[in-house]
Amino acid sequence: TGNSTANAFGNSTVEVIANSTAQTVITPVSYSVGNSTANAFGNSTMEILANSTSQTVVTPVSFLTGNSIANSFGNSTIEILANSTSQTVVTPISFFTGNSIANSFGNSIFDTLANTVSNLQVTPATIFIGNSTVNVICNSTADVWANSTVSTQLGLNGALFSNTVANVVITSTTVVLAN
């Protein structure tokens, strides 16, 4: 049945409703709805929603949504968000986010922040901050600052100051100057 504006057709396997700008098709196993701007398709295993700039796909085990700029994927074990310059990945045991300049990774054991010139790593026992020139290590018994020519160590039992020329050791009972 129909006219110049809208038409409908149906039988035991399909229902079709259409006009000059949109169409709907329903079968026992799927559906499709759409026009020149947006479309939807679904069946027992997936749902797809799409337009000229983005798309979403949902299945019983995952989802995907995205466009030419950013995308997202997820399932029961991972979530991923990404664009052309960076990404974030989340799992039940870890987290990562980063780009070409800086990155961050963490889990239940340690966290690491890094960029092209320096790093920071934190564990339950130690903090490390450093780059190719200077480093700092801190834990429950000592703090150490060092570069290629000088190092300083502060600990529970004393301090050590050293370089390529001289050393100074300080404890609760002695002070030693040496070269």
Written account of the structure:
The chain is an all-beta fold and 179 residues long. 0% of the residues lie in helices and 66% in strands. It has no helices and 22 strands. It has a 22-stranded antiparallel β-sheet, with no helix packed on it. Strand 16 and strand 17 form a beta hairpin. The N and C termini lie far apart (104 Å).
Search tags:
66% strand, rod-shaped, 179 residues, 22-stranded antiparallel β-sheet, mainly beta, single chain
Look at the helices and sheets and give the structural class: mainly beta
Overall pLDDT score: 92
The parts where pLDDT drops under 50 for at least 5 residues are none
The outline comes out as rod-shaped
Number of helices: 0
Largest sheet: 22 strands, antiparallel
Assess the beta-strand content as a share of residues. over 45%
Spell the H/E element sequence: EEEEEEEEEEEEEEEEEEEEEE
| Helix amount | under 10%
Alpha carbon gap, first and last residue: 104 Å
Rg result: 31 Å
How many extended strands?
A: 22
What's the short version?
The protein is built from no helices and 22 strands. The chain has 179 residues and is mostly beta strands. It has a 22-stranded antiparallel β-sheet, with no helix packed on it.
